[in-house]
Amino acid sequence: MRILWLKSELLHPLDKGGRIRTYQMLKHLMRGHEVNYLSFVRPDDSRDRLEKSAEYCHRLITVPFREPRKFGARFYYDLTSSLVTPLPYAIRKYSSRAMRSAIESEIRERDYDIVVCDFLAPSINLPAGLGCPAVLFQHNVESTIWQRHFEAQSPGMKRALLRSQWARMHRYERDTCVAFDAVIGVSEIDCARMRDEFGVRQVYDVPTGVDTEYFRPDAKDSNPFELVFTGSMDWIPNQDAILYFAEKILPIISSSIPQCSLSVVGRNPGPALLELERSNPRVKIIGRVEDIREYISRGAAYVVPLRIGGGTRLKIFEAMAMGKPVISTAIGAEGLPVRDGEELLIANEPQEFASSVLAVLQNASLAKALGERAREVVCEKFGWERAASVFSEICELVGGRRSHRLVA
Length: 408
What we know:
By secondary structure, the chain is α/β, with parallel strands linked by helices. It is about 45% helix and about 15% strand.
């Protein structure tokens, strides 16, 4: 098949879950299909990032894009303007005549079997009447994330603003999903939401995977009092998780283990997180690193205190593959086929979460058993090869190259 893959960014560095998942799908697709990748490029995208696209596509087509600086004057102008339009800000900011023209030109000049829209954002530029099947690859149900945003806020202007963005996102996401020939989600929970809330009929789920050769247990001793969290720190759900953990959970843990600390590893920590590090000596904001394995390995336990989010967390499988005991909220582990008390511990309220962390830090046998079971499960069931193979089968089915019933 000849595949046109639409994306809002280049994939390198592979420092976000969405980029990692896309990279693994594309590497597999390239083995048997022609993959052309059409994406925005930003002024700071290096030549190295452009050249590395050869790892995940046969041909790269780019459109220049300059995103407003967060919290700058243009950012607030665009955000305010979005209040009088039906489009959510997170979608409207990607609207681009140049991108629409590039998509139209590419489809007109080449015979594509299928178009894959990666995440919801590129769909704003997708012209009607493509002439070939189109699939929407939903790493999250975006409106679910926005709903949880506003529900986590105290009453006030910010909550009202987030609620209005949720309503816009829900309408846009519903209408867009049903316009595609098929939708691919990353968990059965997400797929059920899209069937029930949006009325999507052709929806498939692709399992989350992990590179179990890259992420493997390290023989080095861990710090018995260090907790670790990894993730893109410019993603609001991750920011909220760390601020919440520092305010509500860490003080409970520290009352029993004063030496306990949290290391937060991930790109672009914002002002609130940098201020947290200055004001709280128990929190270390590491920022972006070349290799997160060193930090996961160093920790005695891996925490995922998410209150907001959607899709599935690759970070949990990465920690599990390294044999680390994981403590997560239900939202943090949502969509992953893992069991509380078997491969990880699930806790939602601050006291419950703190107690689970303390149980792991104070019971070496429990920590070891959780880590060993976690590693065993991901090695047996959740390698990337299986997930990418399912994705390829779906594309072949929708593109008309596979007629039998798809079995994931």
